[in-house]
Specification:
Rossmann fold; Helicase, Ruva Protein, domain 3; Zinc Finger, Delta Prime, domain 3; two-stranded parallel sheet; flat; disordered N terminus; ATP binding; ATP hydrolysis activity; AAA_assoc_2; MgsA_C
């Protein structure tokens, strides 16, 4: 590459790429891992890292940290992506790694971006070469390690969790990008504090998108060299709320627990977060139906009808209008009296069935029976509905809540009555 090639390449690189840290001194955030004296920093500086998985939200520095390691290590560095990696690709990496170790006494570091995208059989093929030290693995993922990476691979690696960048770190990076004469905007532009505060907030810790918005805002200026709030708002049309699998599970958990706890405002908030982030509204409706039966149950049987009506509204009316029907169902469930007696009844019955033999159906209630007496016509009829071995077993215990309170009273009449 000649000088002119370098100039052209650098000129057309996005600001976010030009500002990518080249060393640990330029790396902002993650002080819990990379602050002075921290274990991971010492391992990197002494070139003695072991296999690790870097887990964290988008643009928290996983790939950048791996790139910095590649520049500081004496090991051979390979970078691959888990989306398209196959077992045969890994075998080739392992073969080269063994050759490098045998011929040049040089270790191999394999950086696997999007490691969660690897199929389980490909992950399994990593186990022996990580365990025997053929390669040092650095995996990077935005997703849940518990859900997306097989436990044997996790057990062979240290897991380092990176956090979303905080406002102070974001502001330092953005101001450095404005001032840097080589990699940044060269001090040609300023920014109001109001615009800076908004940008640091709206990007939700994603510095890459913040830098893209800053660059767009700067280059869109005409009669001013100062970036103001309106310019940033136009450059950043909507708040970043895309969610990873981990976020999805956490928000779903928060939503469900809010429904169960009758915390209406919390449930509405998490509903809004999920809808704004693009979660399928039918998925949300399925969770609402579950809670209508599991947590409200017979205390307010209408909750199931409301929940199913919300599902029908999503299918019939569609979004965004159906959000009102979903919100109505959420409020109804939160404000309803609660009873999990039905939930306990069916689970208790299933457990009993699993643990006991399959008893015969009593003669009175078999198909085609001649001994059955209709209890509606004959209220004093004495049919045998359960096998003798099960007759004393009680599965349904109504709770003294809402509509179910009437059933509770029936089951708990004083002995004198």
């Amino acid at each position: 590459m000649d000088l002119f090639d370098f100039n052209r390449t650098n000129e057309y690189k996005p600001l976010a790429e030009r500002m990518r840290p080249q060393n640990l001194e330029q790396f902002f955030g993650q002080k819990h891992l990379l602050g002075e004296g921290k274990v991971l920093r010492r391992l990197i500086e002494t070139d003695k890292i072991g296999s690790m998985i870097l887990q964290g939200p988008p643009s928290s520095g996983k790939t950048t940290l791996a790139t910095i390691i590649s520049g500081m290590t004496s090991s051979h560095f390979e970078k691959l992506n888990g989306v398209s990696l196959s077992v045969s690709d890994l075998r080739e990496v392992a073969r080269k790694a063994k050759d490098n170790l045998k011929l040049y006494n040089q270790r191999t570091i394999l950086f696997l971006d999007e490691i969660h995208a690897l199929k389980s059989n490909v992950q399994e093929s990593l186990l022996p070469i990580v365990e025997d030290g053929t390669i040092i693995l650095i995996g990077a993922t935005t997703e849940s390690i518990a859900h997306d990476i097989i436990p044997p691979l996790v057990s062979r690696c240290r897991v380092y969790r990176l956090e979303a960048l905080q406002k102070d770190d974001l502001e330092q990076i953005l101001r450095q990008a404005l001032a840097d004469p080589e990699r940044g905007l060269g001090g040609e532009y300023g920014i109001t504090q109001e615009a800076m505060d908004y940008l640091c907030d709206v990007c939700n810790g994603d510095v890459r998108n913040a830098l893209i918005a800053l660059e767009t805002a700067a280059y869109s200026l005409h009669n001013s060299q100062t970036i103001e709030l309106q310019t940033i708002q136009e450059s950043f049309e909507s708040r970043i709320n895309a969610i990873t699998h981990t976020d999805f599970y956490d928000m779903t958990s928060a939503f469900c627990k809010s429904l169960r706890g009758g915390q209406t405002d919390a449930a509405i908030y998490w509903l809004a977060r999920m809808l704004y982030s693009g979660v399928d509204p039918l998925y949300i409706c399925r969770r609402i139906v579950v809670h209508a039966t599991e947590d409200v149950g017979m205390a307010n049987p209408t909750a199931l009808q409301i929940a199913l009506a919300a599902k029908d509204a999503v299918e019939f009316v569609g979004m965004p209008e159906a959000r009102m029907a979903i919100a109505e169902a959420v409020v109804f469930i939160c404000e309803s009296p609660k009873s999990n007696a039905v939930y306990k009844a069916i689970n208790g019955a299933l457990d009993y069935v699993k643990q006991t033999k399959a008893y015969e159906v009593p003669a009175d209630v078999r198909d085609g029976t001649r001994t059955y007496t209709n209890p509606i016509d004959h209220p004093n009829a004495r049919n045998e509905y359960l096998p003798p071995e099960v007759k004393s077993k009680r599965f349904y215990h109504p709770q003294n809540s809402g509509v179910e309170a009437k059933i509770f009273a029936k089951y708990n009449k004083p002995a004198a009555e």
